[in-house]
Amino acid sequence: MSSTPEPVVSELIELLSLERLEDNLFRGQSRDIGTKYVFGGQVLGQALSAAQATVDGGRMAHSLHAYFLRAGDIEHPIVYDVDRTRDGGSFSVRRVTAIQHGKVIFFCAASFQEHEAGVEHQLSMPEVPRPEDIEPAPAVPAEVMATLPPKVQRWLSRRGPFEFRHVYPRDELNPPKRPPFQQVWFRLTEPVGDAPELHHALLAYASDFQLLGTANYPHGISYYQPNVQMASLDHALWFHRPFRADDWLLYSIDSPSAQNSRGLARGQIFTRDGKLVASTAQEGLIRVVPDGETAALVPAKE
């Protein structure tokens, strides 16, 4: 592989590299990747980048807990205000507030820790085919693509910075009903530097893909359907062990419950040699409305 990142990779790294306005104040740009509003993973990655920039002494992120309050405007930047809540003997905690158009759209708390030796165990990685043994997803046929809304076309036709290979692929345009489980291999499409802070921000970005959609599986619905509204409500991410976002990682996801127009999904992220490197959890809004036009026009958070 080339040592020079492809444009989509370098663009993502630039997106996660915030402009510092003051000691604790940062500005990040927004990017349209085909979603109706700012992609939640972008805000997660940028908020973690802002928090990391205020932590000294080699302390690394071990957990992040976030709430999405309002849909983000793709056309405008986001300001991140970092509160240096605590710097203790081993841990540091930061609270990050994301602001757009004068309103809070997101906030999170992130905790950082110095490396310490201690007891260690983990659950085993599921037995799945290697990523090399899984064919990349085929392109959507042109005649089908032409029938889809412009933003969905842009989403499906773009070549993003991450490559995904589904162990059990599902046709999201004509989704069958299946149990709420999935495993997905993913990696950044080009190698990047060794800074662990960068790989943490990249994983925060990628962790928002695939997760909530698992709650749709038993119901045979998909984000692409015009009568389905979906939006992330919260997101939790724990970092366990070192990893590289440009090496293959397995995202093993399940959804234990959906109710009251909300779905819950949980994920475990493993290296290809079976090390559990991160865990995730997310609850999101899932509304199925009778009028497809209404679903397309009403912001999901209202």
Task: Give an account of the 3D structure.
The chain contains 6 helices and 13 strands. Helices cover 17% and strands 35% of the residues. The N and C termini lie far apart (45 Å). The chain has helices at residues 7-16, 40-52, 142-145, 150-157, 196-206, 292-297, and strands spanning 19-22, 25-28, 60-68, 78-87, 91-100, 103-113, 162-166, 181-188, 228-232, 234-239, 249-259, 262-271, 276-288. The radius of gyration is 19 Å and the shape is globular. Helix 2 (40-52) packs antiparallel against helix 5. Strands 1, 2, 3, 4, 5, 6, 7, 8, 9, 10, 11, 12 and 13 form a 13-stranded antiparallel sheet that branches. The longest helix is centred in the N-terminal third of the chain and has 13 residues, at 40-52. It has a single domain, classed as Porin (Beta Barrel), CATH 2.40.160.210.
